[in-house]
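chain below, 434 aa
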Amino acid sequence: MKRKVKVRESLRASFKDGIFAAFMGGVTDQYATPLALFLGATVQQVGWITALPHLLSSLSQFLAVRVIYWIGGRVKLLVRLVSSQASLILCIAILPWLDMTNRVELLLVLLVLAAMCGGLAGPAWGSLMSDYIPSSKRGRYFGWRNRTVGAVTLGSVITSGLILYSFRDVSYSAAFCILFSLAALARYISAFFLKQMDEPPHRTDPATDFTFLMFVARFRESNFLKFVVFSACLTFATYLSAPFFAVFMLRDLQLSYLTYMTLQVCSAFASLVALPLWGRHADLVGNVRVLRLSSFFAAVIPLFWLFSHDLPYLMLIQIWAGFSWSGVTLSVANFIYDAVTPQKRVRCIAYFNVINGMALFLGSSLGGFLASRLPPLFGHSLLSLFAISCFCRLFFYLLLSRSFREVRSTREVSIQELFFSVVGIRPLVGPSQD
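prediction:
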């Protein structure tokens, strides 16, 4: 009974942490590129601003297990990392006021350090949450949690856009300073709630002490590693273009910050609505089937950008993107929790993030290199990059999406039946099952 009480209290604290972390994420994820462009970043530098933080964040996770034991627990580690991340974001808030030539480079350094704090925190947080929540409830729980947290992210994106818009005749420097100061404050509050989480016993087993090379060497027999390879290839193909949609909107299409905010809100709102739907289907038919369907939806997104750039059309694209990626994100996380035993989770989550971080780095770096060198398509070089990204996404999807299997007993349905259920034509999940 005491254990259940501690779990409930920890989940409440984690939820409150998630609320403030979401506010921070809405600012740092959606407005770091606009800030970089405001500071004078080139397209290549925008690629580095996406690539390097994710790469070094991922590589830092090689140390995740050692750091947890060195600090003395997952909760202690989370509190220290989140507090450090908040301080780094506060430093970013000062950058618009500095009169120096290397502000973009300094922004990159601060983003790298903040991302490394977040990267080290990821395996510890994921391990804790998988200890708190039984596998049969993870789809619905994370669908509900992510939807609620997503609502806060949506509010953060809207608030940030309105602040930038309201300061258009005053000072964008002041606006960006306010945004990132609020993000830092939210992250400090996250650390306060993380302190209230309980540290469940974390049993160690010598058999779980395997190196990265030992992990990679098991590719042929490891279902989980085949899933990791699929995810990494999809990440590489996605990040060939992902960092540059904001550049295309703000630089090439000359959209205002308010219009940019509107498009980001469309994506966030669609994700918010779709998460519980994906979660219920994942619990019923398994995470693998949900991942196969949602990742196909995500693969064709860049193709849509080639046809029109009218605002209503772009809003529809963003709605499609939010709907698709919410399914990918949810099913990927839940599959990891299902496929890996508790003793191995910290290490496997770290290795998963390392491989995906390297794929993201390669994709963003190559995309930044190609962005200004490709011949224009329909008048824009970035559209050529979007087309290449779409081709690579579909290629890896067709090649690897069937290479791994579901790890728990679920209802057998075809991808076509799942599609008809998700879009509401022939539901597999009725109101009584929700």
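Residues 2-38 form the longest helix (37 residues). The chain has one domain: 2-195+213-424.
thats it, cya
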